[in-house]
């Protein structure tokens, strides 16, 4: 390989939550999930790959730090699945299957902020490797899934459905696109990054404990999720925002209910998260209509969904209710308001300052893509290794 | 009636939670519940009743305030059920059934502190009326239930099982005693009264919303609660503390999970509640054994269960972890420690001061009883009315 291949992959946020594996090793989920892929302009992972006889050993750098591949089962699995595909495609003894691979990856958002960095990261790794080795026609979601479950959803843009599947080997557990980002371009996503100091249970550990101890989880998996998945896909196809928004809120709440039903309980929402939830319901009540909805992953940060036409008015109320001492440009990031001087429409009482770190406004985006901005200098590797 | 009748009734705390009615009017629950009756020495309602031709109209005083009976369906129902029983027993035209009734009631603990005041209050009202009108052999739990559901459990001491029943008219929905307080005299209950300013959804409104919107509730009712009820009754009978404690914690968590699965969600636990939950699990982990368990009603206050032998050591750690600027006698109330100078055994980090208002230590107690300390002066009524 004479050149570096570099790609960019998006973050996705689930509206029907993935929580619980039916196979820990193959990363097969207990239930379907549905997600929206966010625009790479605001948040993305970027990965450069180079491979060849001149690379002395497999290495992965993440955000400037060397990752220990030997102890990272997920990284190893992605590497070996890619090498298996290379052999299937180019022959058991092809030289490419023997090459070592150098990976350099960066996120343009805080890794530990609970903003789905591993999904974007593994999607980007797999997509970049596939491009480097000419494997883009393969089932990439199924490989990305084995790095980090929800990564399979970041392989596509727009609206994505990860089907749990039934096969014990996972042959039918993969992601499909429901609709592209162009289907519903009015959709906006507002991320409220919450100040939080608590150590949380990782989602890998949390969902394992839920599978082992939550009596309610099986009912969610068997009864609630199948109905909701069908309903939200219908709502997406019909661009029915109210239905989409309600199912999203209910499923976020149910996911956190399952976490609480876990023994000992896993608690990911904090007081600020609950203040956001109450605010969203109050706002919709005041508007007389569901204008905005929330979802929370395994952390306190809120992801809000709203249509473009309602964004400015809502943002005015939001920054009134959650004030900050930061400058507006530091506090509100991402897509700029076209009409920023609206007055807060309902005049809710402001809460104490700086409950939020910052607010990021973004929209739907496409799947991963190749770019020219490389993180690896091939010449220095050829010279140094 | 020539004399005032005065009774005292206890608070009870559920270990299998009552949440959801199958009949709003008759107050019939969707599921069985199990509770412990607390000692009247620490917490009780006290009620005096007088009735006779000299009482001009039905009146109810609660903690010094006149209650509007006309708009209080629950009070009306208790009065009319008692009058129905009087007629059944003494004849349709007996004078007693025509008498007006004066009630004066007081709690020796804050009514609004989320400490099950309505359960003790209605149990006390019904028990006192039954004593005043010679009806103590009747099914008093079924009448108390129609004042406030969980009041039926305060009619008995020790361990109590409220059977949901199946009859549409509620004939089989009543409380029975599992065991008296003498069966497990080592049981101690520690109440942690949490500082909280939030307005909460009342339990009546909250459970109605859960029945209407929580998909998980039906599964809890049909599958989880029947098994847990059977198991915890067995644990109580066998005095198996570890099993009792675990089921109690799991059911508290599941009840709050159902509240979160409600739409919009009902949130009763606050950050301090969650800190208590984490502390209890950490303490048990450090002890290598389940020494103490928690349960939370529709509010942030914790009710802890522990055996007498483990109380002193636990209390030492508890007040180290939840320190207070109050004097010890104001901060720790109720049953005094016999050996108070233990050192906190595990040396957990103290949290910020005054997360708790106060700590009340109590034990199991008996059901309602008649006392001589009247809240009504019969002579002044005869003279004034």
Tell me about this structure.
Two copies of one chain form a homodimer. With about 375 residues, chain A is of the alpha+beta class. The first copy, chain A, has two domains: about 5-180 and about 365-385, Ribosomal Protein S5, domain 2, CATH 3.30.230.10; about 185-365, Alpha-Beta Plaits, CATH 3.30.70. In chain A, about 35% of the residues lie in helices and about 25% in strands. Chain A has helices at about 75-90, 115-130, 140-145, 205-215, 215-235, 240-260, 270-285, 310-320, 330, 380-385, and strands at about 5-10, 10-15, 20-25, 30, 35, 45-50, 60, 65, 100-105, 160, 175-180, 185-195, 290-295, 300-305, 330-335, 355-365, 370. In chain A, strands 8-7-9-6-1-17 form a six-stranded mixed beta sheet. In chain A, a hairpin with a 4-residue loop joins strand 3 (about 20-25) and strand 4 (about 30). In chain A, helix 5 packs antiparallel against helix 6 (about 240-260). Chain A starts with a strand and ends with a helix. Chains A, B: Its EC number is 4.1.1.33.
């Amino acid at each position: 390989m004479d050149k570096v291949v570099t790609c960019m992959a998006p973050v996705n946020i689930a509206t029907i939550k993935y929580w619980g594996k039916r196979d820990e090793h193959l990363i097969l989920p207990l239930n379907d999930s549905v997600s929206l892929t966010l625009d790479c302009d605001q948040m993305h992972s970027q990965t450069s790959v180079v491979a060849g006889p001149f690379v002395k050993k497999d290495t992965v750098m993440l955000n400037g730090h060397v990752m220990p591949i030997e102890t990272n089962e997920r990284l190893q699995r992605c590497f070996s699945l890619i090498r298996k595909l290379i052999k299937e495609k180019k022959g058991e003894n092809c030289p490419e299957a023997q090459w070592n691979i150098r990976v350099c990856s960066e996120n343009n958002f805080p890794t530990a902020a609970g903003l789905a960095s591993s999904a974007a990261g593994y999607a980007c790794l797999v997509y970049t490797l596939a491009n480097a080795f000419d494997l883009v026609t393969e089932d990439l979601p199924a490989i990305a899934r084995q790095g980090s479950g929800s990564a399979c959803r970041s392989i596509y843009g727009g609206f994505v459905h990860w089907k749990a599947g039934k096969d014990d080997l996972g042959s039918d557990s993969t992601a499909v696109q429901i609709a592209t980002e162009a289907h519903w371009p009015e959709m906006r996503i507002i991320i409220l990054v919450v100040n939080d100091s608590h150590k949380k249970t990782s989602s890998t550990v949390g969902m394992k404990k839920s599978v082992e101890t939550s009596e309610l989880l099986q009912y969610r998996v068997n009864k609630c999720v199948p109905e909701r998945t069908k309903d939200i896909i219908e709502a997406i196809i019909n661009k029915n925002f109210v239905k989409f928004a309600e199912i999203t809120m209910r499923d976020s709440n149910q996911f956190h209910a399952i976490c609480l039903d876990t023994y000992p309980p896993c608690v990911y929402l904090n007081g600020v998260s609950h203040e956001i939830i109450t605010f969203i319901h109050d706002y919709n009540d005041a508007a007389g209509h569901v204008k905005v909805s929330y979802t929370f992953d395994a952390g306190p940060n809120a992801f809000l969904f709203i249509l473009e036409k309602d964004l400015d008015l809502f943002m005015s109320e939001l920054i009134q209710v959650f004030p900050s001492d930061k400058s507006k440009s530091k506090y509100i990031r991402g897509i700029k308001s076209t009409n920023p001087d609206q007055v807060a429409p309902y005049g809710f009482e402001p809460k104490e300052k700086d409950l939020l770190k910052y607010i990021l406004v973004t929209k739907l985006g496409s799947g991963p893509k190749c770019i020219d901005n490389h993180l690896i200098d091939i010449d220095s590797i050829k010279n140094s290794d």
